[in-house]
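Shipment paperwork, digital attachment
Item: protein structure file
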Amino acid sequence: MSIFIDALQCNLQSTIDGESAMPVEALSTAVVTIGASEAYSSASEAIAVKALAELYAGAPSPGEVLREGARPLRVMLLAPEQSVYQRFSARDMNEAFASLGAEAMTCLIKHGRSWRLEFLDLVGQHRPDALFVFSQRRRNLPELPRELAVLGWDQDCVCGFDSGGIWRIGPRDRIWTLMDEWREQMESNGVESNVVGHLNMGANTNLYYPPTEDVEFEHEVLFVGNIHPFENYRKVIQFENWPKAAQAIMLHARERLVEWIRTRDESEPYIIPEIESFLLESAGAVGVAVTTEKEQWATMVRFFRYRIAHYVVRERMIESLSGFRLGLYGQGWDRFPSLAPYAKPAINNGPEMLRVMHRSAVHVQLHTWTVHHPRLYDTAAAGGYLLVGRVPERRPLELEFEVGQELDSFGSIAELHKKIRHALDHPDMEREMGARAAERVLREHTMTHSASQVLEELQRD
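Attachment content:
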């Protein structure tokens, strides 16, 4: 039994998947699911918190460990199991940190009462120098000692939306955001600029790589992603919590957006209109006066773009592809009559996804707030020919790839269809651009590049 578990004065080994706790040396490559047990005691948690405080008193910072070089940096990653996006980001960053010489392990959280106690136990055993979390805040983990660096990667604007007491920043904490807009929002909410930075996505090139031989295409067009009918999704996003006047504005704008998408020509710069003006026009149409200087208005603009417009654009754009031999993987598509014949279950990240990528001629990437989604980099790493929906953002696609040479983009259904047909008529172009995209990923856009940026910034602290 470890010294830390002795300090707890209770037997916690059985709380980890019903098996005995692993020795510290085995944790450097582990992925552990926590929260599966019902064993929990508030008294045990209090003892664990006190033991951690004593354990970390006077502990070196990550920068000190890296500069001294006497031992590897120990990194623990924490992500919710139910989020596919964050679960696989944790897996890939775990591998990346390990490839750079760190001792890394990942904890995946189940929705169970015991997860916090199991997590504290593992922190005590592994004794990480840094805890790397995905779209979470330190205030979600108040029991952690301040000497433990909490490193956050905000991948879904969780911190950007939070206007009060964002992180309760510890002296060694840092935050990276996927988008510069979110970083700016956090700084406007009081987070010091030297604490928050930008960290891009990257591919796990051990999992995603170009085909080694020519394959027959099963799909002319591939799209991977979920869809939710709005009447169901509005409950998930708690739409009814908005004031009635705000609901009226967004519902009106949602209906207008359907028509806006349908009528765009090939010259449209983005797949969405300028959202603030669009909502103001809808406010006027429904007779609601708004004060644009208030924070609630800015929050509603972001909410509409990220939560409402996202699925409107996705539904209409993908529905327009029913004339192609379409591969459509994800939840919810079978509810749309024109797409039901193409609908397939959600697909696992990894070898299964790679096989489908290699058997698809054109890959469509479509989000309303950023192009920098994991699938952009995974598909490029796999040598896929990508058509990416253009959106307004501080870091456009052109900063990471050469548009027109490594992949291409679109701003409307008309332009998307034109470029799909051109690609299908020119298979050599598809292969050449896909190969160039894969080369760019290897040079600049792997998860190892992302992990390396984290370590470099920590070493300077």
